[in-house]
Design a protein that fits this description.
The chain is of the alpha+beta class. It has five helices and 14 strands. Strands 3, 4, 5, 6, 10, 11 and 12 form a seven-stranded antiparallel sheet that branches. It has a five-stranded antiparallel sheet with strand order 1-2-9-8-7, with no helix packed on it.
Length: about 350
């Protein structure tokens, strides 16, 4: 973590609904267009790449096609340890047309406007889903893709059991050599923005913190934050039973995280590492994890190789084994997932938009 939790500025935040990541709740199948599955930040061919994925088909339910036409999808960027975001890229979509495409617009908001829902910002790109869109210092792509995320959900179940009961991790019924990717063949809707190195706020060497949010228009004319995402695997590990989307973390700003929720994270981790004997001082280790994952943003140094790994968490690529890293962090012991990035090799591309459209 590269900044400390501090008092947030007075910004209007609505305390409603909650966050979902892939399989967190049965309601995700009904509202998947608004629920974030993953966030990635890495160095691309021309600059910094920001990717958010929503609307996973892993629920095996009927998925509403496309992006929600009454929603905002926002990438929030903190610069050089700033408490509040100083740059926001806001993406909005029109209704589906007869070809299954949607109009998309991107606005850039800077300074105080970056955290003001009432601000309009500057329009920087306009086009349609499924096509490369350029404007200003950006190139943008949005559409349905093959999901690059990978995990064996049977392994997740063993970790959930340990956390739920504050108990030793029992993997006797799960063998890494038999691991399978539970997300094989699934798809998500993805928004990809590549910010050119010419963008003054994202020069090479700049340290940034990135999170994503979905917001829905309200009947009163304002905006309600539905969902947000930073670090991977937070909800599946810590709040897997949040079936009514009531956890306040969804509508919180990251600057509130440690103060509002640090004790819960710390005590949950302390119980499980004590049960597994992996930390001489479970309480101290629990707080070290809380301070590592809060504020819940992905930190990244612009222009450097991204890696969400054991020794270094610097952005996140689509190949990174995030479940393995997070399991090892919260349990304070090496935990293999039994899977390697090769299982989703065909879901990644080396050139823009770096994702693979579904159906290829």
């Amino acid at each position: 973590m590269f900044w400390a939790d501090r008092l947030c500025r007075a910004v209007p935040l609505t305390r409603e609904t909650a966050m979902s990541h892939h399989l967190d709740t049965p309601l995700a199948a009904q509202s998947g267009q608004l629920y974030l599955d993953d966030l990635f930040v890495f160095d691309g061919k021309r600059g910094t790449v920001l990717v958010m994925d929503v609307n996973s088909s892993v629920t095996r339910a009927d998925i509403k096609p496309g992006f929600h036409h009454e929603a905002r999808y926002e990438f929030k960027v903190h610069v050089d340890g700033s408490e509040m975001e100083e740059l926001t890229y806001r993406v909005a979509f029109g209704e589906l047309d007869g070809q299954g495409r949607q109009e998309l617009t991107v606005h850039a908001l800077t300074g105080a406007e970056a955290y003001d829902d009432a601000a309009t910002g500057t329009p920087v790109a306009q086009g349609r889903t499924g096509e490369e869109v350029t404007g200003g210092h950006l190139r943008v792509w949005a559409g349905r893709i093959t999901d690059p995320f990978y995990i064996d959900l049977d392994q997740l179940a063993t970790v959930n059991d340990a956390f739920k009961n504050g108990a030793p991790l029992d993997r006797s019924a799960w063998r890494p050599e038999n691991a399978k990717n539970s997300f094989a063949g699934t798809t998500v809707d993805s928004i990809v923005i590549e910010v050119s190195r010419d963008e003054p706020m994202l020069r090479v060497g700049t340290r940034i913190g990135v999170w994503a949010a979905t917001k829905l228009a309200t009947d009163a004319g304002g905006w309600r934050q539905i969902n947000r995402a930073g670090h991977p695997m937070m909800w599946p590990i810590f709040w897997p039973t949040d079936t009514d989307f009531s956890n306040p973390a969804n509508t919180r700003h990251p600057c509130e995280d440690l103060r509002a929720d640090g004790e819960e994270i710390a005590s949950t981790v302390a119980r499980v590492v004590a049960a597994n004997g992996t930390a001489p001082d479970p309480g101290a280790y629990g707080w070290s994890v809380a301070r590592e994952v809060y504020p819940d943003v992905l930190t990244y140094q612009v222009g450097t190789p991204a890696n969400y790994g054991f020794a270094l968490r610097n952005g996140r690529t689509m190949a990174d084994n995030a479940p393995e890293v997070m399991f090892s962090l919260v349990l304070n012991t090496g935990v293999t997932s039994g899977l390697t990035p090769d299982v989703t090799r065909d879901a990644r591309a080396v050139s823009f938009p770096y994702v693979v459209p579904a159906g290829r």
